[in-house]
Every structure is written in structure tokens, then in C-alpha cells.
Amino acid sequence: AHGNGVEVILRRECIARVGAAQARADDAPSGRAGGKTIVDDDGLMRAMKRAESQVDHPDTDARWIEGRPRDAYALASRAHLHAEAGRRAAAIADARALVAAHPQRSAAHWFNLGFLLEADGQLAAAEAGFREALALDPKLDRAWYGLGLALIGLGRHDEAVAALVRNTELQPMSPYGWYQLARVHTDRHDPEAARRIIRHLKGFEPKVAAQLERETGLVP
Length: 220
Fold this sequence. Notes:
This protein has helices at 12-27, 41-54, 58-66, 72-84, 88-101, 107-119, 123-136, 141-153, 157-170, 175-187, 191-202, 206-216, and strands at 30-33, 36-39. By secondary structure, it is mostly helical.
């Protein structure tokens, strides 16, 4: 990934928590009232407390999910708990099982799989996961960001630019997409495009703009 400054980091942990929270919301028992989805927060909390109490007891956790091998919420919960405990291979296995059993259920599930695969260095598979997420939700900005990072890692800079441009369109005030986009332009030997981004960032994220100036040597 680009950059090692304190102002801009990849925020893998933050992205993971957002993705996991979205997955939990998608999988929570819900009903409809007045055309709006109502999430059963009490049921969600009970299920999460039950899962969290079992995370350090693999045998108990296995029994909990054994009777529901295709249950989306059980798989999403266990994948999240494995990821939080640093058991990435187990988390990936459950995330794969989740999207295999419920491929059309949630873009967040595909995003979480892509996120785990990208963190594991499986960039081609991560790209596929992010693209599946975007097929279900083209406005999922963090999936465009993840796709951009995967494409950077694969050396496909022109495609990465397109993904990151879309991310900045959906999240114009977030510096992360802009930062990565400027770095990709630098790698593509397009300093003028990078300078335009630095000038743009000076208007609302001057620290990030200054970081890019230091890292690239470019001065608008």
C-alpha cells in the first residue's frame, strides 16, 4: 500500500469494523413498518453476546454453528470473531462459505471477503470479491476503495485510477481515496494529475496535502 505517514493509513481495522457492522445489520432479524426496515436490536445483541462468549471456545463455537451450516448470520458472526482474534484463514473460510451459500444476500458479505483476502495478500481473489460486492451495490464506496488497492497491488494502475475516481465521487470529502489516487498518478508518471489532487486537498485536508508533497516531492 502507498504511504506510511500518520495522517493517512489504510484503516484496515476501521474498514473491517464498518463492514462487519453492516453485515450484522444486514443479517439481523427485521420486519417492515411503513415501508422502512426495522432491525431487531435486542435479537441482534443477544446473538452477538452469545457469539462473543464462545469465541475462545472452538468446540462450543463449532456446536453453535454445526446445526446451521448455511445460516448467514451464524457464518457472518463467526467470520467476524475469527478475524477479530487474528485467525484470518478461518475467517476467510467462513466468509467464503457465507457468500457461497448466500451469493445475492448482501454486498457487505462480499466486501468483507474481499477485505480479508486483500489483507492476506490474495489480491486477484480480493479483486473478484470487491467486484461481486459492487455488482450488488454499485454505490458501496469502500468496495471501490478496496478494489483500487487490490488493483494497485496487482500493478494495474489504469484500472486502479478508475476505481479510486469512483470512490472519490461517492466520498468526495474523505482523504483516503484522494491520497491513493494521487500516489497512483505519481506511479503512472502523471505528476500534473497528482498536483491537481494536492491542490484540491489543500482546500479541506491540508495535512494530507502536505504529506503528499513530502512523499512525492511534488509542489503545486
